[in-house]
Structure formats: structure tokens, C-alpha cells
Amino acid sequence: MAKKRVPDWLNSSMWSSPSSDDRNSHLRYTTTSYSTFTSPTIEPSAVDPPVQTPSPSTTREEPPKPQTIEDSRIYNSADDYNGISSSSPSADDISRQAQLLYELSRKVIDMPELRKIACQGIPDGAGIRSTVWKLLLGYLSPDRGLWSSELAKKRSQYKHFKEDLLMNPSEVTRRLYKSKSYDNDEPKCESRGLLSRSDITQGEHPLSLGKTSIWNQFFQDTEIIEQIDRDVKRTHPDMQFFSGDSQFAKSNREALKNILIVFAKLNPGIRYVQGMNEILAPLFYVFRNDPDEENALSAEADTFFCFVELLSGFRDNFCQQLDNSVVGIRSTITRLSQLLKEKDEELWRHLEITTKVNPQFYAFRWITLLLTQEFNFADSLHIWDTLLSDPEGPQETLLRVCCAMLILIRRRLLAGDFTANLKLLQKYPSTNISHLLYVANKLRVQSPV
Fold first, then answer.
1. Residue 412 has pLDDT above 90, yes or no
2. Which one in 208, 210, 286, 356 has a CA-CA gap of 20 to 30 Å to 90?
3. Which stretches does the entry tag as region Disordered (predicted)?
4. How far is CA 263 from the centre of its chain?
5. For residue 44, is pLDDT > 50?
6. What confidence score (pLDDT) does residue 309 get?
């Protein structure tokens, strides 16, 4: 059988950026206790010097800060961000920004056209990405006239979620008693705020082991809440937006924690899985930096609902009971393997047959964390623009991007053995993101109908 080959231009070194010791310092999953998403720990390999370096800085830095409101709650100093210097926008960026602003000004948004423009990447600034992502995730209706009422309703709903789900059982019991006191017209007992022994039901007793006991449920949730707290504290430790002792960073971490706890309690079938904080972070970052003050202050509520929408397409990857099913994470990884075999059988055979590099060793993290740990933060946002814009849905687009990642470094992979290839795949070399997404789209175009 003839081995399928890919055009040489797909693997041209001109699309790579030079390696750096700091290139992927954020890949904590190979060195921390993230057992759920960790593949075998291998030291990174060196990346061959490229011909040219068209991509942005390869160090782990934050993207240029969008134009934000003059508010003490938000960082306005350049020193508060980790060094990406704002370069002059290209003509393409200016043109695309103008097109997006025009589409967003319509009374009814043309979603196919919006997707077409956004998939090429959304320029930073003017709060465009925040609004476009909300539209792409279905949080906002294409009808602009409905935005105000929809947002007010959702934000109020999230407020009630927090009040109901983040309340300490002591407060729940106190409110229950207060309600009973009003009903029984017992102002003296109410003023003391004390429950008589006869008024404490089995479900309200701290030592109750009953399934309906609010205290029993509280103690069961404690372990998950502690895990969420640990993971949130480790979210992008090199970004002052999330890390540090400033009140701003603390409030951002608290918002992430609230969202994940509420999600876990509302979704008992999945609850919380380590790594969800990494998927949540880009959404919250984009929404919190919306230049519209009301939107920025409501970022926690908006992020929660968009996180639910995003995860709805990937939830089977997080459900351990489905790992070995036709819809679980192993099945998704198998689909990636099949896609690679279809597009580049020689590379597939070398990886999985000759060197026996199981795709689960590297693709598990790629897929479950939506590539947030393989590229710097700015590049991750660019990739997400494409993932969220694709009319086929982010899952299919993600698999094509992962396949393109393999094809772009095929020469080095074909020359490597098990150890070298695993090193390379677990610390993916810096590359030009626009070209990566172009190749991923070519894989779709060339797919049989």
C-alpha cells in the first residue's frame, strides 16, 4: 500500500519560532500532582532552529491588554502585565476589526458572517472578543434588542445560584428558623436567634448522616471545594491577573472558585475535574477585561453560563464513567489517531507502530484542556477564536488542530524514537499559530464529503 504523504510546505521550518528555556514553563501538568490530566513526565527536547520567526514572542506572556475602563479595580499600568509590547496592528487586523464592529452594530447579527470573520482571529481591544465569544457560545441572542433583558435575567439567576449553593449550613438553618419564627409569630425566640432542641430536624443536625442532611452534604462537598481552591491558586501563576497578593488578583481567583463550586453542585454527574480551572481562565480573562464597566463587573456571571455552554460540547471527556465508551475521552483520542492515519499514514505508522507512542500520552492533555497548556496565553486566545467560530463545533475543529500540530513537526517525529518523540509532543515547539490554523482548515477542506 502506498504511504500517504503530505506536501513539504506543511512541515516547513519557516513557520516555527526558536526554542526557549521559558517557552513552556507553564506546562505544570508534567511536574505537579494533576493526576487526572498528567501523562508520563519526560524532559523537553531541543527544537531545531528555524529559518525565520514570524510568530510573537515565545515566552509565556499575557496578550496586550484590551482598552479597559479607568477603574481602580482593573490594572491600567503596563507594569501590571508580563511584557508583551503592543505592536502596531496589521492592515488585516484593522480591516477585520472594522468588519467585526460592523457586524456587531447590526440590529440582528449575521452569525454565519460573524463566524467567518472571527475564525481568522479576533483583534485585541475595543471589547470585541468579549461580545463575539458570548454570541458564538449562544449566551447572547443574535437579536441585539434582547441583550439587555437576557443579560439581566442570567445575571440575576447566577446571583440566586450563589445564594443557594454557596451558603454555609449554619446560615441555611438560621434562615429556616427565621422563616418558622415569622410563621409562628415568635418574636422573642427570633430576637435571640437560637433554635430550641425540639426545633432542630434530623436534616439540620450537624451530626446527621442522612442523605437529605444539609450538613452531611456540606462535609461531602468540602473535599471538592478544597481541590478547587488549590487548583485556582495554581492558575497561570505568571500572570498578575490571576496570581499575586493584590486585591484584584484575589478577587479574580475568588470568582473562578465560585464558578467552579456552583458548577460542581449543579452538575453532580461530573462535579469538578482537575483542569477545569484552565478552561475557565480564558473566558473569565476576556470577559473581565471588557471595556464596558457593567459587563466587566458582571464577568463572573457571564463566565459561568459561557463555561457551561462550552463544556456542554466536551462534557463526555470529563465523565470518568464514559472513558471507555464511544463518546468518552479515549474514543475522542482514537478519532484523532484515525484522522492522522487518513491524512498522513507514514507519520501515524511511525508514531503508533514503530515507536509505539500512544496518543494518550500527549493528546489527553491537548484535548481535555483545549490546548491551553501547549501555547502561550495570547496564542491560546487566537486558537479559541477559531474553535468557537467553527460551525461544525469546537470538538471537530480541535481534532483538526491537534492533527495539524503533528503534521507540522512530522520531519522531527519521523527522525525520532519513542523518547525523543514523547519529549517533543509533551512540550510542543513554538509555531506560527496562523499557519497552524490554516493547515488545520486545509485538513477539513481535503476531507471527503
1. yes
2. 286
3. 1-92
4. 14
5. no
6. 93
Question: Looking at per-residue confidence, does 29 or 231 come out higher?
Answer: 231
Single-letter amino acid code for the residue at 408: L
pLDDT above 90 (res 40): no
Helix/strand/coil for 143: strand
DSSP 158-195: HHHHHHHHS--HHHHHHHHHHHHHHHHT-HHHHHHT--
> In whole numbers, what is the pLDDT of the chain averaged over residues?
76
Q: Assign residue 409 a region: left if phi > 0, alpha if psi is -120 to 50, beta otherwise?
A: alpha
Q: Which residues contact 153 (CB under 8 A, 6 or more apart)?
A: none
φ, ψ of residue 143 to 5 degrees: the values are -85, 110
- What is d(CA 336, CA 439) in angstroms, rounded to the nearest whole number? 15
Q: How much is the pTM?
A: 0.74
Range scoring the smallest mean pLDDT among 34-48, 111-125, 303-317, 358-372: 34-48
SS3 annotation, 72-84: CCCCCCHHHCCCC
* List of domains in the chain: 8-55+319-445 (1.10.472.80)
Q: Extract the C-alpha cell encoding 123.
A: 483583534
Residue 102: CB atoms within 10 Å = 12
Please check whether residue 409 is in contact with residue 437, taking contact to mean a CB–CB distance below 8 angstroms. no
